[in-house]
Amino acid sequence: MDIVMDAQALNAFLERDFPQVAEDHRVESVGPGRLVARLRVNDRHLRPGGTVGGPSIFALADVAIYCAILSRIGPVALAVTTNATVDFMRKPAAGRDLLAECRILKLGRSLAVVEALIFSDGEDEPAARCSMTYSIPPKRPQNSAL
Q1: Pairing of strands 80-88, 128-135
Q2: Average pLDDT in the 104-118 region?
Q3: What per-residue confidence (pLDDT) applies to 96?
Q4: How many CB atoms lie within 10 A of CB 32?
Q5: pLDDT at position 44, please?
Q6: Which end of the chain is more exposed for a tag (fewer CB within 10 A), N or C?
Q7: How confident is the model over 12-37, as pLDDT tens digits?
Q8: Which residues are CB-contacts of 28 (< 8 A; sequence separation ≥ 6)?
Q9: Neighbours of 5 (CB within 10 A)
Q10: Are 33 and 104 in contact (CB under 8 A)?
């Protein structure tokens, strides 16, 4: 399946439909079955000890995986997470943005399974691994009444 939305289109979609996450999250690149997104880390993402907190890591994975799916199916605002697993493997580096490198494992008509590795910018070893399943709502026939 071809790329339907590139990084620019995905960022515009987030700014328009999800402004609450667009300030912190940005799609960096989109490729066949892959996507890289960035969390612009600032003080509100930190927990005691100066590391990025788990909720911020989860949010990056969720936004990035959602965008990876939309890059292939288009702007389906009602696609939702139905399952999520996060393995926190190491402390993210202090003072650096986080990157989510996503890979689409399965993209069906009603379900998508995507994996994301979360890295501190410039680091080779992942800080976390996330796997999520999304439910994709059925397409409405084009001539159907609302």
Answers
A1: antiparallel
A2: 96
A3: 93
A4: 10
A5: 82
A6: C
A7: 999 999 999 999 999 999 999 899 99
A8: 7, 36, 37, 38, 99
A9: 21
A10: yes
Alpha carbon distance 63, 37 (integer Å): 8
**In the predicted structure, residue 142 carries a pLDDT above the cut 70:** no
Place of tokens 């987030």: 14
pLDDT value for 139 = 77
C-alpha 143/C-alpha 128 separation (Å) is 44
* Domains contained in the chain, CATH given: 7-135 (3.10.129.10)
Residue type, 77: A
pLDDT digits (tens, 9 = 90+) for 37-70: 999 998 888 888 878 999 999 999 999 999 999 9
DSSP 72-141: HH---TT-EEEEEEEEE-SPPPTT--EEEEEEEEEE-SSEEEEEEEEEETT-SS-SEEEEEEEE-PPPPP
| DSSP label at residue 52 | E
Q: Which two tokens stand for residue 23?
A: 């300030």
Helical (H) or strand (E) element with 37? strand 34-39
Q: Is the pLDDT of residue 127 over 70?
A: yes
The DSSP line for 11-24 is: HHHHHHH-HHHHTT
